[in-house]
Each structure stands twice: as structure tokens, then as C-alpha cells.
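Contributing new records

If you add data, match the layout below exactly. Sequence lines come first and carry their own label; structure lines follow with theirs. Keep one chain per record. Anything else will be rejected by the validation script.
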Amino acid sequence: MSNFWRRLAKRERGLVILTALILAVFVAKYAVISPFLERREWVKNQLDSQPQLLQKNLRYVGQKDALLGALEAARAQIKTQEPKLLTGDTPSVSASDLQETVQAMATREGTQVITTRVLNPEPSGSFSKIGIQLEIGGQIQQIANLIRGIENAPKLLIIDEINVRSLFRPIGFPQPQGVPQVPAQNLRISLTVAGFARAQGAPSPKAENPNDQSRAGT
């Protein structure tokens, strides 16, 4: 290496030194200076955001009492809705309760429940949405009263879907022979009614301690 350097002319040595300096500047810029500048910019952004984050946290702390009050109010409201849930520990039992409730309403309004089909339960948080599909026949006013009764029922019931088909028979249209005389029905509806029940796996009453049972038996 020393022999190569001695063979170089003075001008060539200057070019080599200049090239080495330029290369060292580029290496220092990309390996040292650029990461340092990026780190400094990141620290600056963090310092700028910290006061805003602290102010936001202090605002949440100041609203602690209001948030706790809202949480307690929500819990109380849910508790007041408990009697409106369907009874039963399983979806099938809850669906049976829903069927009996809607069937009683339909009978009270004078409509005829032709078919009933239980739908698959749908999870909704800590609750299950239980639905049934019914085909009901009756007169317009009877059907309207039934729908109104479902919406205003003591249970928390909702009507998801309703399809109406008219059975209106023109005046003077002859009754087909061999068809038994039935009460006049000018509407046939397909109705999907849903209610809510506690989902399976919800907290149950605490089981009795076996030690207590053994002591009770002695």
C-alpha cells in the first residue's frame, strides 16, 4: 500500500484524499447525522404530544364521578328490564315461552295461528335473541290489534319482519264446494317476532358449599 502511495503523483494523492473525505461525509450523514436528526424529531413530537395527553387524562379523571354515575344508571336500567325478558334457562324453553305469549295474544284478538316455526337464537352480548315465525290469518282490524298488542306487550318483544297477503273474496263470488265454512279472513300474514333472554353461561346463583351440606347432614 505504501509503494502504491509513493508511486502516485502529488495531484493524484490530492484527488484520493478528496474522494476519501467526500466518502466519509456521506457515510457520516447517512449513518450518524440522519438517525440523530430523526431521533431528535421523534423526541420533539413526543414532548409536544405529552401535554395534550396529560390534559386529556386529567379531563377523564375529572369526569370520573359522572362516568360512574352513568354506569350505575345503565345498570339500574338493565335491571328494570329484567322482568321483560323471556323465561327459561335454554333457548328452546325461552322460545316456548315466546310461542305461548304470542299465541295467547292471537287468540285474544280473534286471529288464527296457522303455522309456527322457531328460528335459531342469535347471540347479543350477554343476551340471546329468540325468534319465531308465524303465519296468521284474520281480518284487518284483528291483525292490526295483534301487532299493536305485540309492540305494547309486557315482555320486550319486537317485530323483525312482516309480509301481508290479501285473501279478499269479491262480493257474490261463490264458495267452492267441499270447502268447510270458516270465519271470514281477508288477510294472511307471515310474522317474525323476537324476544330476549339471558344467554347460556350467564352468572348463576352460587352453589352451596359441600362442607355446609355435610355439616347440615350431621
